[in-house]
Design goal:
This protein is an alpha+beta fold. 16% of the residues lie in helices and 31% in strands. Strands 1, 2, 3, 4, 5, 6, 7 and 8 form an 8-stranded mixed β-sheet that branches. The chain is globular and about 50 Å long.
C-alpha cells in the first residue's frame, strides 16, 4: 500500500465546477479528536471511508462484500492514498464529505473526495455541499485507490489452518499464504457506478 500526505494548497478533488456524485453530513465527536479538540489526522480517512460505504448503500450495494462475476465474494482494499490537509476540523463541527469524482479501472476504483465545514446561511439554516462547495476551500481532499480482491482463505473453525513448522518435512517447502487475489471489478458494480457517473454529467 502506498500512503502519502502533503501540505500543498492544491485540492485533489477533480472537476471542481461539477456537483459532487454524493454528499453526506457527519458530526464530529470527542472520539474523533485529539486532546486539543482537533480531528486526528487519520480520522479524515475514516470520514472518507464512511462516505464511500454510505454511497454504496444508496446505490443498493453492500458496502463491504460484493458478489464477483463468478459468484464468489469479493471486497475492496485501499491500495493508494494521496491526502491534502488544508484546514483543521474541530470538535462539534458538522462536516460534509463529498465524492467529487470516480474513475473506473479494470481492477480498481479511484475516488476523489473532499471534506467541507457546513456554514450557516442568512436564514440561520445550514447548507449542504453542492456545486457551490467548489468555490470554498475544502478542509481536506484526497485521491484514494481501492483495489478489488477476492479472499482465497476459507477458515475452518474445527482445525488450525496454519501448519506447524515442526510438522513439515525438511524436504517440503514451507507454504506461503496468498489470502488476497486481485480480480476485475464485477460487471454489476461497474454498471451501477457507470450509471451514477453518467447521471452526474447530465
Amino acid at each position: 500500500m502506498t500512503f502519502s500526505t502533503t501540505q500543498k494548497n492544491t485540492a485533489l478533488n477533480a472537476d471542481a465546477d461539477t456537483a459532487p456524485l454524493y454528499a453526506t453530513d457527519y458530526h464530529v465527536y470527542i472520539n474523533h479528536t485529539d486532546a486539543g479538540g482537533i480531528v486526528y489526522h487519520a480520522n479524515h480517512l475514516v470520514f472518507f471511508e464512511n462516505a464511500r460505504r454510505d454511497w454504496f448503500t444508496t446505490l443498493g450495494l453492500n458496502g463491504y462484500f460484493l458478489q464477483a462475476d463468478d459468484g464468489e465474494v469479493q471486497h475492496f482494499v485501499v491500495s493508494q492514498v494521496a491526502l491534502n490537509y488544508h484546514k483543521a476540523i474541530f470538535l462539534d463541527d458538522t462536516i460534509t464529505v463529498t465524492i467529487d469524482k470516480v474513475e473506473l479501472k479494470p481492477a480498481s476504483i479511484i475516488f476523489y473526495q473532499s471534506i467541507y465545514r457546513k456554514t450557516p446561511t442568512v436564514n440561520g439554516q445550514t447548507q449542504v455541499a453542492s456545486a457551490s462547495a467548489s468555490k470554498r476551500t475544502p478542509l481536506s481532499s484526497t485521491r484514494i485507490v481501492i483495489a478489488c480482491v477476492k479472499n482465497q482463505i476459507r477458515p475452518d473453525m474445527d482445525k488450525d489452518i496454519t501448519p506447524s513448522v515442526d510438522a513439515i518435512a525438511p524436504s517440503e517447502p514451507i507454504p506461503t499464504a496468498r489470502p488476497l487475489r486481485p480480480i476485475r471489478v464485477p460487471q454489476k458494480l461497474r454498471a451501477i457506478i457507470a450509471d451514477a457517473i453518467a447521471s452526474q454529467n447530465h
